[in-house]
């Protein structure tokens, strides 16, 4: 009923915060499964957009299982994911990566790239633990606040940019995507078999 725009804005902000808290409580108390379909050539699906709502301030440990952190562009995808964690609202201290070895001549480049990311993260107070598996197939990202995200294509759902100076090269919100499905669960509501 107020005519004061500043008060309206403040009330809307408070209502939005309250609704978000209620939504969080609903997610944790009810069964939760969210599925996001990323259509072929769609944009607006940066890592920030996909993961931000699950990166609460209590997130301090992250597990990434992705067999395809091998080639240079895949290492850059992982690096961008790590950058998102470092600048996010969370206080990440440890990132665990489980991936597979590059089977060809790129193995040394893969190892040196991961070591460089590891060293760079260290300067931000973040430890990167890397492990390799020859049998890993599934892709999964887990946060220690209970959220688990499964992306059909892992972190590699972006298309190759048209060129080094094309829109979307740097900003993943503007980069066209491959078609994939993202499933979000809370571990409180998953049954281990």
Q: Compute the gyration radius: what is it?
A: 19 Å
CATH architectural group: 2-Layer Sandwich
- Gross morphology is globular
The name CATH uses for the topology is Endonuclease, Chain A
Count of individual beta strands:
7
Protein name: MITD1 protein
Pfam family, one: MIT_C
Domain MITD1 C-terminal phospholipase D-like: 44-186
Organism: Chloroceryle aenea
List keywords for this structure.
7 strands; 32% helix; 193 residues; MIT_domain_contain_protein1; MITD1_C; alpha/beta; MITD1 protein; globular; 7-stranded mixed beta sheet; Endonuclease, Chain A
Can you characterise this structure?
The chain has 193 residues and is of the alpha/beta class. The chain has 4 helices and 7 strands. The chain has a 7-stranded mixed β-sheet with strand order 1-7-6-5-2-3-4, covered by helices on one side. Helix 4 links the parallel strand 3 and strand 4. Helix 3 runs parallel beside helix 4. The chain is globular and about 70 Å long. About 3% of the residues have low confidence.
Quick rundown:
The protein has four helices and seven strands; from the N terminus they run αβαβαβαββββ. It is an alpha/beta fold and about 190 residues long.
In terms of topology, how is this protein built?
Layout: H1 5-29, E1 33-38, H2 47-51, E2 61-65, H3 72-87, E3 94-99, H4 107-122, E4 127-132, E5 140-143, E6 147-151, E7 180-186
Parallel strand pairs: 2-3, 3-4
Antiparallel strand pairs: 1-7, 2-5, 5-6, 6-7
């Amino acid at each position: 009923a107020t005519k004061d725009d500043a008060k309206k804005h403040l009330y809307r902000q408070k209502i939005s915060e309250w609704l978000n808290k209620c939504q969080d409580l609903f997610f944790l108390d009810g069964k939760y499964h969210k599925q996001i379909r990323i259509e072929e050539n769609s944009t607006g699906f940066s890592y920030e957009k996909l993961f931000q709502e699950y990166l609460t301030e209590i997130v301090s440990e992250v597990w990434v299982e992705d067999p395809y952190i091998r080639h240079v562009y895949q290492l850059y995808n992982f690096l961008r994911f790590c950058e998102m964690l470092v600048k996010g609202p969370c206080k990440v201290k440890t990132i665990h990566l489980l991936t597979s070895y590059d089977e060809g001549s790129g193995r040394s480049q893969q190892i040196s790239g991961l070591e460089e990311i590891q060293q760079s993260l260290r300067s931000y107070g973040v430890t990167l633990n890397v492990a390799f598996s020859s049998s890993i197939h599934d892709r999964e990202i887990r946060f220690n606040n209970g959220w688990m995200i499964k992306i059909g294509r892992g972190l590699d759902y972006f298309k190759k940019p048209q060129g080094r100076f094309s829109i979307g090269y740097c900003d993943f919100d503007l980069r066209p995507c491959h078609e994939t499905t993202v499933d979000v669960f809370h571990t409180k509501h998953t049954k281990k078999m």
